[in-house]
Amino acid sequence: MSAARRLYLHIGLQKTGTSYLQAALLQSRDRLAEAGLDLVPPSKRASFELMSIIRERYPDRRDSATEQATLAAFTEGLRRAPGTRAVFSQESLAACSPRQ
């Protein structure tokens, strides 16, 4: 990620319209990209997987190689994103501990 790029982290609480916002972002991905805003990770599923690693959820369903691949995909997605801004939206991040 270049020094000029900003990453916006949206962690709105569950049941406060976050699913609507995420659907609108996903459906408007091309128009947002034209305006210099990239969605990273690029899908709802990928965002969930990244959140589960950050929050250390479902450890029995993951292995270290998969976690590393998911984190690398996020980092690479940010690096390759052509816009000047990126957004990561995942409401379950609202419950992160300070360490997470």
Structural descriptors:
about 100 residues
What does this entry look like structurally?
This protein is α/β, with parallel strands linked by helices and 100 residues long. The protein has 4 helices and 3 strands; from the N terminus they run βααβααβ. The chain has helices at residues 18-27, 29-34, 44-54, 64-80; strands spanning 6-10, 37-39, 85-89. The chain has a 3-stranded parallel β-sheet. α3 crosses α4 (64-80). The radius of gyration is 14 Å and the shape is globular.
Q: Can you give the helix content as a percent range?
A: 40-55%
Poorly predicted segments: none
Distance between the termini: 21 Å
What is the makeup of the main sheet? 3 strands, parallel
Strand content: 5-15%
Determine the structural class based on helices, strands and strand pairing: alpha/beta
Global morphology: globular
Q: Give the helix tally.
A: 4
Mean pLDDT: 92
Based on DSSP secondary structure assignment, what is the total number of beta strands? 3
Radius of gyration: 14 Å
Strand arrangement across the biggest beta sheet: 1-3-2
Element order: H for helix, E for strand: EHHEHHE
